[in-house]
Design a protein that fits this description.
By secondary structure, the protein is an alpha+beta fold. Helix content is about 40%, strand content about 25%. It has two domains: about 10-180, no CATH class; about 185-230.
C-alpha cells in the first residue's frame, strides 16, 4: 500500500481513492466527510461484530491485525483475569459477552498527541464490582482506531475505597495505560515518542487535578446540604 496521512485499512483506502475527487477544489472537505462517515460505520460494525470488525493496517510488509494487537494487551494483563474476570471477558468478547450493571458507550476525540493532532475512536466501559464495603469501580477505555502513532491501546482506571480509614470518605484512584505503537522508533520516532510521552504525562496530571477538584466541590456541596441548619 502507499503512504497515507492517516491510518486506514485496505478496503477503506480503496474506497477513499474512488469516492473522493482529489482534483476538486473541495477535496479536503470531501476527505473529511468521508473520514467522519467511515468512523461512524466502523463504530456500527464494531457494535455488531466486536474486534473482528477492526480490520488490519497494511502499510508495512506484514499486515497488522488490530484484533490480534488488542488481544496481546489483554493477554499481558493477567490481573484482570485474576480479580475481575467478567470485566476481562467483556472487553475480549464484546458484544457477545454481557456485563451486568455496566455502562458502555463509544465516542471519538481529537487530541494533540505527539507532533500532530490524532483522531481516536474509543469504547468505554464503567463497571462497579464487589459487595458491601468492598465495592469498587473499574473503568476501561479501549482504543478502536487512531489516525496516527498507535495500533491499539487500553486505558484502565480503578476506584477502590480506602478501607483502612472507614471513618473518612475517600478512595484510591489507580490508573494504568497500555498501548501498542507504530512509527516511534529511530531518530525521528524518538522525537515523536518523547513528545507523546510528555503530552501523556501532562494529560494524566490534568485529569487527576481536575478530578480532584470536582470531587472536592461535590463533597463540600453534599456536606453543606446535609448539615443541620444553624440558628
Amino acid at each position: 500500500m502507499g503512504k497515507c496521512d492517516v491510518k486506514v485499512d485496505g478496503p477503506t483506502l480503496e474506497r477513499i481513492q474512488k469516492e473522493v475527487n482529489w482534483s476538486a477544489p473541495d477535496a479536503h472537505e470531501q476527505a473529511s466527510r468521508f473520514i467522519r462517515q467511515t468512523m461512524l460505520e466502523a463504530a456500527q460494525e464494531y457494535h455488531k461484530n466486536g474486534d473482528a470488525a477492526l480490520g488490519a493496517y497494511r502499510d508495512k510488509k506484514r499486515p497488522t491485525f488490530l484484533a490480534k494487537e488488542f488481544d496481546g494487551l489483554l493477554q499481558n494483563s493477567p490481573f484482570l483475569v485474576e480479580y475481575i474476570p467478567e470485566f476481562h471477558r467483556y472487553l475480549d468478547e464484546y458484544p457477545k459477552a454481557e456485563l451486568a450493571d455496566a455502562d458502555s458507550y463509544l465516542y471519538w476525540s481529537r487530541v494533540q498527541f505527539g507532533l500532530r493532532p490524532t483522531v481516536r475512536l474509543n469504547h468505554v466501559v464503567i463497571y462497579p464490582f464487589g459487595e458491601g464495603d468492598d465495592v469498587a469501580v473499574a473503568i476501561g477505555s479501549k482504543m478502536l482506531y487512531a489516525s496516527h502513532y498507535f495500533h491499539t491501546a487500553l486505558e484502565l482506571k480503578f476506584l477502590v475505597k480506602d478501607s483502612a480509614h472507614p471513618e473518612k470518605v475517600g478512595f484510591y484512584l489507580i490508573s494504568l495505560n497500555r498501548s501498542r505503537s507504530d512509527g516511534l522508533t529511530g531518530l525521528f520516532g524518538g522525537i515523536v515518542r518523547s513528545a507523546a510521552q510528555s503530552e501523556a504525562r501532562k494529560g494524566l496530571a490534568f485529569a487527576l487535578e481536575s478530578g480532584k477538584q470536582v470531587l472536592e466541590e461535590a463533597y463540600q456541596e453534599h456536606t453543606q446540604q446535609n448539615s443541620p441548619t444553624r440558628r
